[in-house]
Write a structure and sequence with these properties.
single chain, 367 residues, alpha+beta, 2 domains, two-stranded antiparallel sheet, 17 helices, 10 strands, elongated
C-alpha cells in the first residue's frame, strides 16, 4: 500500500461522511434522523494531527448519532451494511481497522473481507455519558463540571459536526463551550493556589544543594503557569502531550515561551528563579488586564523574609474568590477540577473513577 498525501483527520472524516457513509445510510433507512460528527479522543479532534498520527486510531472515522429507539432498531443493520458496502479505501486510506497487540488500540489495515469500520453508531445521551460521565442535555451540576477532565471537555467542544439532524450536538457543544462564570473564577483561583503552594521551593531546594529537586519544582510550576494561561484565555487545557501546542496559541505564548524555556534550561536555582519571576509578573499582568478582579500588584517579592523571590500567588486566589457570588461555588474546596488535583491517567480516562474521587471533595448539594 502506498502512503497517500497527508490529509487532516477532520477533513478526511468530513469527506468520508458525505461521500461514503451518508449515501449508504440514506439507502438503508431513507430519511432517518441522525447527526454525524468527529468528536472524542484523537489528535485530529484538537487539530494537532500529523502524518505520524496515522499509525493508530486515526483514519476515516466518525460518530453517527441516532435517536435512542432508532439506534436500538436500526443500529446493527446499519453497522453491518457499512461493513459490507463501504469502500476498502477512502482517499488512499484503509477503512478497515484491525486490532493490535495493545488492548483497545486499532490501526488501519488493508482487507479483502468485511470492513471493521470506525463509524461508531450510538445515541447522543449514551455517548455523552460514556465520554463525560453526564449528559449535557439533562440537568448539569457542579460535580459534573468538576469531575470532567478538561481534556474531555476539549474533545467534545472541538472536532467537527458534519450534520446535526437530531439538533442535540450544537446546543450541547455550545453549553459546554466554557465554564459558568463563577465556576471559571473558582478554577482560576485554584490554579493560582497551586502555584502559591510551591513557588518558594525553587530557592529552598537550591539553597540546600538540591538543584535536581529545584528543577523538578520549576517544571511543575511551568506546567501550572501554562495551564493557567489557557484557563485565562478560556481554552480547555489538554493533557500533557498537547499542552505545549495548545499553549502556543494563547496570547501570552510569544512573550512567555522563551522565558519558560530559559527557566527549564537553567542549571542553577538563582537563574531558574529569575526567569520564573519574570513569568509570574507577566501572567499576573495578564490577569489584571482581564478585569475579573480589582488590580492586584503583579510584582514579585521576598518570601517571608527569606531570600527567595515569589509572587505570593495566593493574593490572586483571594481576589478571585472575593468576586464569586454563587454560594454553592464559594463553598467549594480550593482543589478545582479533577485534573487540577490529580494527574493519574487511570483516573482521568475513566469517568466513573474521576467522578468518585471528585465526589469526596465536593460538598453535597443542599436538599
Amino acid at each position: 500500500m502506498t502512503t497517500p498525501c497527508f490529509l487532516s483527520g477532520l477533513k478526511l472524516s468530513h469527506r468520508f461522511y458525505f461521500e461514503a457513509v451518508r449515501p449508504l445510510l440514506d439507502e438503508a433507512v431513507p430519511g432517518i434522523a441522525h447527526s454525524a460528527a468527529r468528536l472524542g479522543g484523537g489528535s485530529e479532534v484538537l487539530g494537532f494531527d500529523t502524518a505520524r498520527s496515522a499509525d493508530h486510531e486515526w483514519g476515516p472515522r466518525l460518530q453517527l448519532f441516532l435517536h435512542p429507539q432508532d439506534a436500538t432498531r436500526h443500529g446493527a443493520a446499519i453497522r453491518n451494511l457499512l461493513s459490507a458496502r463501504l469502500p476498502k479505501t477512502f482517499c488512499g486510506y484503509p477503512t478497515h481497522f484491525a486490532a493490535t497487540a495493545e488492548a483497545g488500540i486499532r490501526t488501519m489495515q488493508a482487507t479483502d473481507g468485511p470492513v471493521h469500520h470506525r463509524v461508531d453508531i450510538t445515541d447522543p445521551g449514551t455517548w455523552f455519558t460514556e465520554h463525560l460521565g453526564f449528559d449535557p442535555g439533562q440537568d448539569v451540576a457542579a460535580l459534573d463540571w468538576l469531575a470532567t477532565p478538561m481534556q474531555r471537555l476539549a474533545e467534545v467542544t472541538a472536532g467537527a459536526v458534519f450534520h446535526d439532524g437530531l439538533g442535540r450536538l450544537a446546543p450541547a457543544r455550545a453549553y459546554l463551550a466554557w465554564y459558568p462564570h463563577d465556576l471559571w473564577l473558582h478554577l482560576l483561583a485554584c490554579q493560582w493556589q497551586r502555584i502559591s503552594r510551591e513557588e518558594a521551593f525553587i530557592g529552598r531546594c537550591g539553597e540546600v544543594g538540591d538543584e535536581l529537586g529545584s528543577a523538578v519544582v520549576a517544571a511543575r510550576l511551568v506546567r501550572d503557569l501554562m495551564r493557567l494561561c489557557l484557563l485565562m484565555d478560556r481554552r480547555y487545557p489538554p493533557y500533557s502531550k498537547w499542552l505545549g501546542s495548545a499553549f502556543a496559541r494563547t496570547p501570552q505564548a510569544a512573550v512567555l515561551t522563551p522565558v519558560l524555556t530559559a527557566a527549564l534550561a537553567a542549571t542553577d536555582w538563582h537563574t531558574r528563579e529569575h526567569h520564573l519571576a519574570l513569568a509570574y509578573e507577566t501572567v499576573a499582568a495578564a490577569h489584571n488586564r482581564l478585569g475579573l478582579t480589582d488590580p492586584v500588584d503583579p510584582t514579585t517579592r521576598r518570601y517571608h523574609g527569606r531570600p527567595f523571590q515569589v509572587l505570593h500567588a495566593e493574593r490572586f486566589t483571594a481576589a478571585l474568590t472575593a468576586r464569586i457570588t454563587e454560594p454553592a461555588v464559594r463553598a467549594l474546596p480550593p482543589t478545582g477540577t479533577v485534573d487540577q488535583f490529580t494527574d493519574s491517567t487511570d483516573v482521568l480516562t475513566n469517568p466513573s473513577r474521576a467522578r468518585a474521587v471528585t465526589r469526596t471533595l465536593t460538598p453535597a448539594p443542599e436538599s
